[in-house]
């Protein structure tokens, strides 16, 4: 069985490759826009290509049985049509439900006629590093909604689920809602960061406008959408699921564990 991982040098795609190899997959092809710089494992076949460069895909899709589809909404309709034409039997996509900007990916995959499994993920634990600079320089975290609560997930856990689905059976037609193991407020996260760093990190509440203004240099027009999403999680906190453990046999990474493993980023 040949498995193709698209976005194979991205944050999640590369981890999918690593987990496939660790689980004993013998025929993995990785799609990379720059194979010479990909530094992928020697046992992985590297195909030069890019989801936004459709002409590069037919050769990469040839002979593939199952595919991990990275979230590139701009070309997804054309990509899944090429996948079906190539005879790919199962697409495992990173996408979202009707509340997400990634829903068009899930819809396109479903409408392609190819068997599918959706992986829905909310905020990544890795997004916490947006606080790193202010923690290092001021010892503070500036947040508009300290009581906003969600259950962020580690990118590695998403990759573990993707690898398990690609290698397993019985996942067709399933949409997996992936979260971390617990719901935490922004204030909870600051408290856990303080414990991991061994020093006090304080939380300063700022206005919605100030929060948007501080995020715009990095997020652009998405800053307002992000801050308003935090506001919604005050009264509608995200509830954790047990899907990661159910699919992989190992629980999702906790915030406390992730912070302990990545404390150097905040020092």
Shape type: globular
Helix content: 25-40%
Q: Which blocks of ≥5 consecutive residues have pLDDT under 50?
A: none
Structural class: alpha/beta
CATH superfamily of the largest domain: NAD(P)-binding Rossmann-like Domain
Describe this structure in words.
With 267 residues, the protein is α/β, with parallel strands linked by helices. It has two domains: 3-121, 3-Layer(aba) Sandwich (Rossmann fold), CATH 3.40.50.720; 125-152 and 181-238 and 253-266, Alpha-Beta Complex (UDP-galactose 4-epimerase, domain 1). It is built from eleven helices and eleven strands. The protein has helices spanning 13-22, 57-61, 76-86, 103-111, 132-138, 155-167, 186-197, 208-219, 222-235, 243-248, 255-261; strands at residues 3-5, 28-32, 45-48, 66-69, 90-95, 115-121, 140-143, 149-150, 174-178, 184-185, 202-205. It has a seven-stranded parallel β-sheet, sandwiched between helices. Strands 7-11 form a two-stranded parallel ribbon. Strands 8-10 form a two-stranded antiparallel sheet. Strand 4, helix 3 (76-86) and strand 5 form a beta-alpha-beta unit. Helix 7 (186-197) packs parallel to helix 11 (255-261) and helix 8 (208-219) crosses helix 9. The radius of gyration is 19 Å and the shape is globular.
Salient structural properties:
267 residues, alpha/beta, Rossmann fold, UDP-galactose 4-epimerase, domain 1, 2 domains, seven-stranded parallel sheet, two-stranded parallel sheet, 11 helices, globular
């Amino acid at each position: 069985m040949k498995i193709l991982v698209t976005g194979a040098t991205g944050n999640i795609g590369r981890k999918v490759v690593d987990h496939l190899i660790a689980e004993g997959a013998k025929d993995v092809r990785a799609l990379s826009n720059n194979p010479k710089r990909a530094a992928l494992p020697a046992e992985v076949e590297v195909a030069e290509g890019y989801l936004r460069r459709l002409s590069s895909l037919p050769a990469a899709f040839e002979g593939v049985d199952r595919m991990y589809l990275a979230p590139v909404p701009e070309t997804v309709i054309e990509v899944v049509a090429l996948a079906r034409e190539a005879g790919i039997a199962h697409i495992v996509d990173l996408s979202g439900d009707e509340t997400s900007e990634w829903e068009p990916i899930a819809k396109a995959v479903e409408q392609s006629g190819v068997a599918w499994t959706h992986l829905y993920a909310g905020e990544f634990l890795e997004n916490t590093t947006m606080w790193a600079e202010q923690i290092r320089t001021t010892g503070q975290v500036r947040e508009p909604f300290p009581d906003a609560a969600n259950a962020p997930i580690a990118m590695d856990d998403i990759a573990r689920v993707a690898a398990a689905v690609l290698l397993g059976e019985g996942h067709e037609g399933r949409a997996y809602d992936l979260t971390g193991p617990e719901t935490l407020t922004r204030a909870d996260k600051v408290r856990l960061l303080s414990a991991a760093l061994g020093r006090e990190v304080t939380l300063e509440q700022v206005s919605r406008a100030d929060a948007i203004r501080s995020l715009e240099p990095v997020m652009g027009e998405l800053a307002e959408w992000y801050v308003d999403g935090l506001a919604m999680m005050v009264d509608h906190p995200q509830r954790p699921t047990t899907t990661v453990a159910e699919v992989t046999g190992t629980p999702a990474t906790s915030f406390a564990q992730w912070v302990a493993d990545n404390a150097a980023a905040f020092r």
